[in-house]
Amino acid sequence: MILMQSDLMGVEVTPNALGRTIKQFCEIRLNAAQPRYLPVRPTRYTASEYCHQAVAAQIEQEGGAARFGWIIREHPGLYLTARSYAVWEDTGGNLVDVTPNGIGQPRILFAVHTGSQPADSTMRHGTHFLRTFRPKTYGDYALEAAVSGAGESSQHANTDDGQPGVDDWTMQDDQEDPLAIAIDDFLMMSVCRNALITMTADGPVCNDPTAYELVSRTRSQCQKEMMRLWGHSLIRKADAQFLFDSAV
Question: What's the CA gap between 153 and 134, in Å, rounded?
Fold first, then answer.
């Protein structure tokens, strides 16, 4: 059972900004270089949505080399993902994503693998996850609304850019928060699904379609619950903002 690149991607998007959380995620979890934004420029040679095939086709026609690393994506406010990925390095040393992404995003966030670069496209398939959601109370949302309304910087931010680091997230005592549990369940099922995938020269392959379908179905259920609870958290935040606006 050969999978498409889109089968491995969810609703994640390219992060809009490079915060401390992402930088530490790359440094601590991935042992990778600091990520940078690369343009997405598929060519007439790169019809495959499988990155290794697209890069190989581009090299065959235009020269250059493959650079391996991690593509960083996020579900804003919930989690980060880092998936093993390949981009094209042209003869001038510029890095370009030549793989069609199917969703029209003009750029990706890419962290170069800092170890020795693999000689071919057999770099082991892997995906890393990090939950970035931190449970908040109405009081937390009210404080954010007050700070935002006053146009001041928060005294309670974990870092200069307002984003906590990797260690800050893992230290949170949030095991009883329903949304945190739902996100963890979804990410765990994502890990289980990825464990059934083998990377080959022809693309990602699943040798146990029955197990893959079962895990994917469970993962989908976890995702629906996660999105339902996330919607409730957004309502709580909107309620806190409304209460603050009504009081001033």
Answer: 19
Contact 109, 37 (CB under 8 A): yes
Q: Which residues contact 232 (CB under 8 A, 6 or more apart)?
A: 179
* Burial profile 25-38: b = 16 or more Cβ within 10 angstroms, e = fewer: bbbeebebeebeeb
184's tokens: 């963890």
Q: Is the pTM of this model over 0.85?
A: no
Can you tell me which residue has the tokens 């670069």? 117
Cα gap 191→185, rounded to integer Å: 10
Q: Is 54 exposed, middle or buried (0-12, 13-18, 19+ CB in 10 A)?
A: buried
Residue 171 has what DSSP assignment?
T
Q: Is 200 helix (H, G, I), strand (E, B) or coil?
A: strand
pLDDT per residue as tens digits for the range 29-65? 888 889 999 999 998 888 778 888 899 999 999 999 9
Q: Determine the Cα–Cα distance for residues 161 and 158; give it in Å rounded to an integer.
A: 8
Q: What does the alpha-carbon distance between residue 24 and residue 45 come to, in Å, rounded to a whole number?
A: 35
CA dist 132 and 150 (Å) reads 26
